[in-house]
Amino acid sequence: MKTIVAWVLILWLALIFQVARPDVFVSGSLAVPLSVGCVFWLRTGTGVLLAGAALLIQWILHTTFAPIDVVVTLLLACAAISRDRSSDVASTLLPTGSRYAWLFQPTMVLCTGLIVHTLLIAEFQSETLWPLLMSSLCIGVPVLVLTLFIARTADQFGLRRRPIW
Amino acid sequence: MSGHTRYMQSTSPKHIRLSASVILVLTLAAVVADRTGTLTTLRMTLHNLLSPGRLMVLAVSPADRGSSESGRGGRTPDGAVDSDVTELQNALLENELHRRQLVIENARLHNELRKSRKQAVAGTLDMIPLVNFRVVKANILSYTGLSGNIRELIVDAGKTSNLKPSDLLVDGSGILLDQGQQQGIDAGQRVVSGMAVVGRITDTSQWVALVQPVSHGEFSAAIQLVKNSRQGAAFGAEGLLEGIGDGRCRVSGIPYTESVSVGDEVFSADINGINGPRLYYGKVVRAEFSAGGEWDVHVEPAAGHVKLDQVAVVQPSVNGSRSTISRGRTPSGAR
């Protein structure tokens, strides 16, 4: 419960910072990596709900053509954390056997989500797409990596409860 | 059910897929709401919920030195806020002037349309108007007539130009303008601010002129009401606007058979007896039946409560091209 409340506050703060300082935090540069971080931290349906709600609120605040980025990010994240071994589609797309899969998978999800988000924000105009994307990645990737390192450290010290199948 | 069991259930793929489905349904609902325009309320609510945090972030953010021109998110110090307020007020005033012009134009077009539908048009000839109206801009020197300081200045300056004080001074109270007979200003000419009538010239000298405000007890002018309705603006009853001395005017001469309502706009019927551009006087603020079978209409002057620095004097003049044509077309036999 405490973890869920903490993530609600973190995601809410991310939205506040994005709205308050659009000159510093490009749209999606905080909300998307923290949403992805939330999904991979909690690895539960609640995490998916929180992340999805945050991304949806971000879309409502700054409406684009369609919330395709929300759908893509969530689907990829769910596929990565899903334990459905029978379909195993995720494992072919996102290799889980590598040593750094705990870093690679979320980063892949984040990059894909940010690319789609930036495409929608820039309305597919190439002159604004690249600077926006670079700004988003420069903020988003470090934020996600920091989140994942904190999660990894918490795992090492036994502070985070993870499902063991 | 133990806490661990509940936790394991919540992390099952089934639960994750269910949560993802819920989010997808909500996303679809949001898209539909956006297309139908019903998402605006939710968007405003979210912005309001984010506002306290946003303001706190802005309050603790250091001022951007290099991006002050971006200015969209940052809140400005008091001086810049005042300038924003001034800009907004100016924009509001311009919009109000534009609206009045549109109202009168709308009424005029309605009138023309009604007339053209009634009349068969045999043929039209291009016509050159005989009378033009021009405006002379003037600065307001004083709201209380020729004060002692200005009087001395003018008299002293007149001495160097060999002008007598009687040629330079004006008597009475009212708004004093810095233009006079030198610029063709004569008594009776209307004084306006934008399209709104401020008053009329009562006395002039070589350099200055005195303006009688519309609310003065001796001011009067022919007016016509313009009524706003769903079908658009339309001309209404004509009457006589008179000042009643307390910053307001009244309109007399409108019979009770005419339609008058609060909110009707008051425009000039003519300018010094000449049909010309419609000048704006104000709005009807009270309309009651009086004992004499007429409406008792009170008007709030448009220019009454605003402190002005500059006005314009409306001057009718004969069109120069018409006088040229007249010289070229002398009647046969006449020399």
Determine the mean pLDDT of chain A.
82
Number of helices of chain B: 7
Please state how the strands of the largest beta sheet of chain B are arranged side by side: 1-2-5-4-3-12
pLDDT < 50 stretches of chain B:
65-76, 329-335
Core attributes:
heterodimer; A: 165 residues; mainly alpha; 0% strand; B: 335 residues; alpha+beta; Thrombin, subunit H; six-stranded antiparallel β-barrel; 36% helix; disordered C terminus
What does this protein look like?
The complex is a heterodimer of chains A (165) and B (335). Chain A has 165 residues and is mostly helical. Chain A has one domain. Chain A is 72% helix and 0% strand. Chain A contains seven helices and no strands. Chain A has helices spanning 2-20, 31-42, 45-61, 68-81, 89-93, 101-121, 126-156. In chain A, helix 1 (2-20) packs antiparallel against helix 2 (31-42), helix 2 packs parallel to helix 4 and helix 2 (31-42) runs parallel beside helix 7. The longest helix of chain A is centred in the last third of the chain and has 31 residues, at 126-156. Mean pLDDT of chain A is 82; it is low at 84-95. Chain B is α+β, with helices and mostly antiparallel strands and 335 residues long. Among the domains of chain B are: 3-55; 131-213, Thrombin, subunit H; 220-302, Rod shape-determining protein MreC, domain 2 (Thrombin, subunit H), CATH 2.40.10. Helices cover 36% and strands 27% of the residues of chain B. Chain B is built from seven helices and twelve strands. The model of chain B is unreliable at 65-76 and 329-335 (pLDDT under 50).
